[in-house]
Amino acid sequence: MITIESVELVNVRSIGRAVVEPLVDGGVTALNGPRGVGKSTVLIGLLYALFGTTPDGVPAQALRRQGSEGEVKIVVTFVHDGQRIVLERGLKGRNDTPYAKVTLNGVEQTVGKIRAANEWVIRRFGDLDATGFLAAFVVRQKELDALVKARAADRRALFERLAGIDRMSDAVKTARAEETTAKTTLEHLPGSAEEAAAARTDLQRAQEHAATAWKDFETASAAAGAEDQALAQATERFEDVTARVRAHQEAAQTAQQAEHHRALTAERAQHAAREVDRLTAASAGGTAEAVHAARAALTQAQQAVAENQAARATARTATAAATADARRAQQAQAAVARARTALTAARAEADKQARLAAAVPADLPQQLQAANARAGELQEQRGVLRGEYQRLEGSIKALSATVDPICPTCSTALADPHELLQTLRTALDRVREQGLTAKAQQEQAAERAQALTAQIAQAQQIQQAAEFARQQHQAALAAAQEADAAADSLQAEAEASAQGAQEAQTRAEAAVAAEGEVQAAFGAASARLRQAETAAEAAAALAPAQITAEEAQTAAAAAVTAAEQAAAQAAAAVVPDTERVQAQAVLTAASQRVQELRSAMQAAQAEHRLAEQQVKHSEMARDQAELRLKNRAAAAAEYERRTAVREALDTFRKDRIARLAPEVSEVATDLITRMTSGRYVSIELDEEFTAVVTDDTGQTRPVTWLSGGEESVVAFALRVALGELWAGQRGGLLFLDEPFTAQDVASRTAMMAAIRDLPNRQVIIINHASEATDMVDLVLNVVPDNETGARIEGASPFIEMPEAVLAGIDEDDLTPGPIASDDRSASIP
């Protein structure tokens, strides 16, 4: 059993901040308000808090009220199976990240992520998800017509969905698909007992062949081992001869290297002698005094070149500075012109705003005060007329409800109560007309006050604009004076810069005339320095070159001696060709014999390996055949299981559909009897869920023959019956979303009486007007507010009645009926 204690909404869709606290100990709560104000937001918020679902699956961020800032949250407090649960969901952080919190009897539960919270709620409700919750506890107007007017297939699908049978249908479809898949798998699986037996026979043959191949390999291995010793002796002799041949080759190579080294050292000695001769000739004129004199002359020439270049650079810099100062002076003159233009425009604007401010009437506040006072007087007059209307209406109801009315003052019977009743009704009409007149006059006074308020605001804006224009004029005047001073200063700087540039240009022209002589002197000094430095470098390298030449002569003599010794050693190490050829022939013969035996051994080994591979292949073939046989048996068992599951689900679904129509008909019959005050005594549903009603005379007729209002009552009874089947004995919440559309007062009264009789139900009704507020126990009004969002308030003692309702009242309709309590009084304009 689910009982809602409160629903708190903050910045959700059109609601700013509101708390809904329905009755929890019986009784009916109405959520009242015009269309589009946010009543359905309460139901949307309830579903989001419980299950995390949003309308049409839009992102949770779409729940935020447009233009709102701060938190977005929905907190639902309810009692389920005797335990108090608080579910809170909302958006947090700069990215409006969804979050969820669950509290059970004051202890917060660890649910982790959003999906875990959803699963916690569904488990708590006994696997009841959002769809099941809507079917069990929420009756929506848009579903009612489809229950009786939709096509047969669509109507059947709707009944199955509301009864939860569509899930069974999905399960049957899934089971049938799985059964088909299992059957297809079984049909395509290979394997048989004969195939497995043949694979085992092939394996035995392969194992016998492998054993024979292994014996041949062992025989070849023994013969090859006997020839290895002879091969080792031949190899040892050949290696000795080979080592002597290698020693002779190394000695010959050493002799060649010694001869090459001798020739190289002789060439180096000759090159060193030639280098000594060259340096001796080049060192003439390379003294330190000559190098110093050449460097001093070059330094003097470089200084003259630098002074020439500096004079020309100074002239270019002075010319550029003079040009920049002249440009800034021109810009300053342009700024002066703009400042004077702005000063003229600011003076004209200040004069214009001053004239507008002088034209504003001075008595606007007094006119506004008089208009507000008049509106207050008319408001008080409307209040007096409203009280008079209520008293007259109460008197008329009291006279109409009494057979022999008496005078309330002297307690005697009235002589002519009908005449008194007519007098009261005439007075009621007069009060109504006076109320309408007072309302029109009050609205005119309010409009007058509003117009004066706008004029005062406009006058204030004009005065502010005049002051702003005066300040702008003063600022423009100061800017013009400042621009004049800056222009004069920049003009003086430009004239001084021009004079300095002229002087620098004169010096640059003199430097250009002397440039040829300076460059010639610089070139001659550079050539003289290079010649002196080259001679000095040759004089410094002469002594080391002489030492190198002497060392090269000594090395050449040593190389001659070493070459002669190496040639003698190479001649002594020569090996005869016959000895080498004989050792090679013996080794070759032994190698051939061993190679032949090893080839035989390898062939036997290869044959054994092939046999082993054949054994492995046969083992794999046997295992695969046995596996295919095992898989086929498992697939057959799976097919049988899937078939049994599909048949069981299908049988259960058909049985549930067969029992649904009678069960719904039974509950709906009891409801329709009470909702129509016995006019219709039963509702029957056929296999296609087409409704047929029976009236109190025993006549049956299809529901499509009924009037629109009666048809809606039948649909409402069927929908509530489906919800009762879902809820069972648990009862709890019953949310009715605008259920009384197009119903008259009598039908609404009967339907509400039937709803009240439902056991263990907490009824909450959404109304788009006040048509059912006289039959409920608590009225909550949804009040729109464009700035802070809609809010929810308890019903006020005075509710404005539309003019169209008052204008359409017929005196003959003023029959005795229940008198409204103080907190739901009737009203007049």
Automatic annotation (TrEMBL):
One of its GO terms (molecular function) is ATP hydrolysis activity. Residues 810-829 are annotated as: Disordered. The keyword Transcription does not apply. Residues 442-493, 587-642 form a coiled coil. The keyword Coiled coil applies. Residues 7-194 form the Rad50/SbcC-type AAA domain. One of its GO terms (biological process) is double-strand break repair. Keywords: Coiled coil, Exonuclease, Hydrolase, Nuclease. It comes from the Bacteria. Heterodimer of SbcC and SbcD. Belongs to the SMC family. SbcC subfamily. This is Nuclease SbcCD subunit C. It comes from Kineococcus radiotolerans. The lineage of its organism: Bacteria, Bacillati, Actinomycetota, Actinomycetes, Kineosporiales.
